[in-house]
From TrEMBL:
CDD domains attached to this UniProt entry: NAT_SF
Keyword Transit peptide attached: no
Positions of the N-acetyltransferase domain: 31-181
UniProt xrefs under Pfam families: Acetyltransf_1
Top-level taxon: Bacteria
InterPro entries: Acyl_CoA_acyltransferase, Bact_Acetyltransf, GNAT_dom
Keywords: Acyltransferase, Transferase
Gene3D superfamilies given in the database record: 3.40.630.30
Name of the protein: GNAT family N-acetyltransferase
Amino acid sequence: MSDMSNVETSNAGSASWTVVPEAVDSPVASALWRAYYTEVSDRYYLLHERRRTAPEELEREIAAETGDDLRPPTGALFVARYGGEPAGTAGVRLMGDLRGVCTAELKRVFLREDMRGKGGAALLLAAAEDAARALGAARIILDTRLDLVEARALYARHGYEESEPLTERMYAECWYAKKLAPRAG
């Protein structure tokens, strides 16, 4: 099993990215999770009900997703920082044997809107995929919504292919899977 504590870095202009493991209940992870949930929830309600998320709805949804499944030894959460500032997250959890293949699930992929387009999403995906490999997964899957077109485009650009439903969740509308090639060396 490879070390999941490696730091991924990339220079983008004068600032640089770092991606490191983070505790799911850290203040940084919690703040990014709140930003993620606020954005995707507001997008959903604006699209379907022409309103923003009510505070009690947001709190209920955040409380329902603790992130405990992203804790070691069967999961990992990563935080990307741009120029030292927390910018986004990606998590992975081992699902085990799913249809004959050791499978991990990609979760909580998010970059703050002001940090998008600077290369951080690719680094987060790479860290999550490396963690999935370290957990023994040969495939990584995810589900998302149809209206999250930017996320869907990101996954397609990085080799994820649409698949049949692989999870059952209330808001899941499309599913992606990617075969994980072993890392050389």
